[in-house]
Design a protein that fits this description.
heterodimer, A: alpha+beta, Immunoglobulin-like, A middle domain of Talin 1, 5-stranded mixed sheet, 12 helices, 11 strands, 52% helix, B: alpha+beta, 10 helices, 19% helix
């Protein structure tokens, strides 16, 4: 993933995010009668009306509980439509958002954690897209998966950054591959934000003249090629943690659809085909196989969640995908060594071709998954 | 020629000059290079001139000049063998990656359908455009709007289909033709395994290179998960003609090559030298053939520094007209005694070698190598009724004696058995083989 790569998912992510979230316009103030009252306590989340028309909706929140709370509006696939954090006990807050027709959930999160206390609402109007509820579930579960990957990345990348902070080259090298696993599994979601991937995961060849190179691969070069840690590297390590925490905080807002999940799975294999199989991704550390495996795992997760629908529409496809996922993981397992994988520079041309063939065998049918769930 | 290495017989010094016919001179086997099967290794040396080359069925006689037209895909024999030679080639060898016989059969059926469409100039599957927005199109699209361009697609089976690593993967072992033998190591062979072999091959020939590449690309795509391309080769500038009244093409050494290749119009020679007959066996192969593919690298730069006289001596032909040494015209009967004993034509000519095969090779230039030399040569393709009486004895002879060996090197090699043609109505590539092994 170079900085220049703009996937279809990225493009969609940016556009939709702008209209749905940022565009929570102050343009047309909702009339008083349209205001939705939300009364939050430590155990309840009361919504004054559960059906209201689409458009600019004003939500007036009152926290009558003893804990600081948050209020969210979620789509059926658990994407955040709008939110307000840090609503103290006894205080009020107002949220405005443009909400399209469809079903949503309002959630209050006393103590600002967990899934929250939820209340279903219906927004009426034109263009209410009817989606297969199984796909909503798939997207919601995939979002949870992506969140879990971000959550497990933070402590891992902190370990990596701490070693760099201490000037411990050997220690940092040990933590490098592991710090990338969660990221590599959920990469399509991370990339959908557009601004995070260029900061964290750009390779040397993705940097243009005058651009400051930051992120994992910059540090990888310092550790393996330059073999030194200076003040710059320490700063960059801290920056990497910050940038990834930003990602962690934004997973909930990522625009994810069943189609983008399927395409994201295919893109993970594209990443493998163009970067990992060639050994370009981790060219200094040669830890490509670790990224490779994580990409396959992330793709398989998306596939498994979409499989109930896909297998109804295209049973032959899911049969083939089951076979190819099994086969590629079996092949990768032969390269395991210790906790990770063998160094990719020890994998010869013939073996690399075997890996490339396995990627093609999986990616080709995977490229038709989006159509199979879009039917 | 400081990089001379010696293999086999003792090296001889370079002949001092071209005007020194030293008949007693032992064969030069310098540099680790061998065999050529260039001019003279032809089918039907006495072909009737002036005939318009016929396609595989008597009814659709078609001039090679109608470059945009379609060549009939179906027939007794596969297209692309005695079809008048097209301008361009994309040849691909595949490894079979599945062990599942049903999957392989389905692939061959899918390939047959796609090939029949492409031969007509049609896209594969549901086409390149107009499909679901969420799905990649079935056809890759780069041949949209192009003529059929006489595209032929010819399939061959390598030994690995019948048995690989001691395993009879598809129950075909006992149906392997006796004549599908591995080639022996010839003197000077410097074969790269990554450019050699293959369980299956597809030869795509067309007058438009984009049409040929499109065909291989789409077949490879259909094959993912079942087969994987092992190697492939692009070719241009056909090095042999199967149409007697056409200008004989020149190879990259600048010489006319394959003067008498006349398979398109010489049915008797085809029957005798190209097609496997029912009595040859096995039964499933009747109407098929054998294909030898050799990637022959030319040492272009050293060849270009060779005097005209020596170049002509090496080939046994004049460079301009292409006449046999001592003769006036290209198609004059050669006088072997006028040639050097190691002249290519003298060694390879059917009258001397006793071997007749159908050449269908192409020149190639894959850019340059890391040393600034042209990565170029001849991608030799030859069809024959039996490799054991065709390419093998011929190449054995050439590898040992041919004067051309100094300027060439065989770097890739593969042998395939070529199944008979696909008949209309539900037939598919390899059906006779797979059906003959059903319920075994």
């Amino acid at each position: 993933m170079s900085a220049t790569r703009t996937s279809a998912v990225t493009a969609v992510g940016i556009v939709v995010a702008v209209t749905a979230v940022t565009g929570c316009a102050e343009k047309t103030a909702a009339k008083g009668s349209d205001v939705v009252q939300v009364t939050a306590t430590d155990s309840r989340c009361q919504v004054s009306k559960t059906t209201f028309p689409a458009g600019h909706v004003k939500i007036a929140v009152q926290n009558k509980g003893s804990k600081i709370t948050e209020v969210y509006v979620y789509t059926p696939s658990d994407k955040i439509v709008t939110e307000r954090e840090n609503i103290g006990p006894g205080t009020k807050a107002t949220i405005t958002a443009e909400i399209k027709a469809g079903s949503y959930e309002v959630a209050c999160k006393p103590g600002m954690k967990g899934d929250g206390i939820r209340q279903k609402i219906t927004v009426t109007g034109k263009g209410a897209a009817k989606t297969d509820p199984r796909l909503d579930t798939a997207v919601a579960e995939y979002r949870q998966y992506a969140q879990a990957q971000a959550d497990l990345t933070i402590p891992a990348v902190k370990k990596f950054a701490d070693a760099i902070k201490k000037g411990d080259i050997a220690g940092a090298k040990t933590e490098f591959a592991n710090s990338r696993i969660g990221w590599e599994r959920a990469e399509p979601v991370a990339e959908s934000f557009g601004d995070i991937d260029p900061k964290t995961d750009t390779r040397a060849d993705g940097v243009e003249a005058g651009q400051k190179w930051t992120g994992w691969h910059r540090l990888e070069k310092a550790l393996w090629q330059d073999k030194k840690i200076g003040p710059d590297e320490k700063k960059l390590a801290a920056q990497l943690v910050t940038d990834l925490e930003d990602w962690q905080a934004r997973v909930g807002k990522a625009e994810i659809t069943a189609t983008s999940m399927a395409n994201g799975a295919k893109e993970l294999l594209d990443e493998v085909a163009t970067g990992k199989v060639t050994g370009e991704e981790d060219r200094y550390s040669h830890t490509d196989l670790s990224d490779f495996y994580a990409n396959v795992e992330g793709a398989e997760k998306a596939y498994q969640l979409l499989k109930p629908v896909a297998s109804e529409n295209e049973p032959a496809l899911t049969k083939e995908l089951d076979k190819q996922f099994t086969s590629i993981k079996k092949l990768l397992d032969t390269y395991r060594e210790g906790d990770g994988f063998v160094s990719y520079d020890t994998v010869g041309k013939t073996d690399r071709k075997g890996l490339a063939d396995a990627v093609n065998s999986l990616a080709e049918p995977l490229s038709t998954l989006a159509a199979a769930v879009a039917k | 020629m400081a990089d001379t290495t010696v293999t086999g017989e003792a090296a001889e010094p370079e002949p001092a000059g071209s005007g020194n016919p030293d008949e007693a001179r032992p064969p030069v086997t310098r540099r680790s290079v061998i065999g050529w099967t260039g001019a003279g290794v032809v089918l039907g040396a006495a072909a009737a001139g002036g005939a318009v080359a016929a396609l595989r069925t008597g009814s659709d006689v078609q001039s090679a000049a109608s470059a945009g037209a379609a060549v009939e895909f179906h027939g007794t024999h596969q297209a692309g063998i005695v079809t008048p030679v097209q301008d361009r080639l994309h040849f691909a060898a595949f490894d079979i990656t599945t062990d599942d016989r049903d999957e392989l059969v389905q692939l061959l059926k899918d390939w047959t359908d796609a090939a029949a469409m492409m031969a007509k100039g049609q896209p594969v599957g549901d086409g390149a455009v107009g499909g679901l927005a969420e799905a990649p199109p079935d056809d890759t699209g780069e041949a949209l709007g192009l003529q059929p361009s006489r595209l032929t697609l010819t399939v061959g089976f390598g030994a690995g289909l019948f048995e690989k690593d001691g395993k009879d993967r598809f129950g075909l072992k006992k149906h392997r033709p006796e004549a599908l033998v591995g080639l022996p190591k010839f003197a000077g062979d410097a074969l790269d395994t990554r450019r050699s072999g293959g369980d299956l091959c597809v030869q795509a020939c067309a007058d438009d290179p984009q049409v040929a590449v499109h065909a291989i690309r789409n077949l490879a795509r259909i094959g993912f998960g079942k087969v994987a391309i092992r190697w492939s080769q692009l070719g241009f500038g056909k090095t042999s003609s199967t149409t007697p009244d056409e200008q004989t093409p020149r190879n990259l050494m600048g010489f006319k090559d394959g003067t008498h290749n006349a398979a398109g119009s010489d049915r008797a020679a085809q029957t005798k030298h190209v097609w496997v007959s029912e009595s040859d066996g096995p039964a499933w192969l009747a109407g098929g053939s054998y294909l030898v593919a050799r990637r022959i690298r030319m040492h272009i730069e050293t060849w270009d520094r060779t005097s005209l006289g020596e170049q002509e001596d090496v080939f046994g032909r004049t460079k301009g007209e292409g006449a046999p040494i001592g003769k006036r015209n290209e198609r004059d009967a050669p006088n072997f005694k006028a040639m050097k004993p190691d002249a290519h034509v003298r060694l390879a000519h059917p009258d001397n070698s006793g071997v007749t095969i159908l050449r269908r090779g192409y020149s190639f230039t894959d850019g340059t190598d890391g040393l600034g030399r042209l990565e170029a040569g001849l991608f030799f393709l030859a069809y024959q009724r039996d490799v054991r009486s065709g390419f093998i004895p011929l190449q054995k002879q050439l590898a040992q004696h041919d004067a051309l060996n100094e300027y060439i090197q065989h770097v890739g090699s593969a042998v395939f058995v070529v199944p008979p043609g696909v008949r209309k109505g539900g037939d598919w590539w390899g059906r006779t083989l797979f059906e003959s092994s059903e319920g075994k």
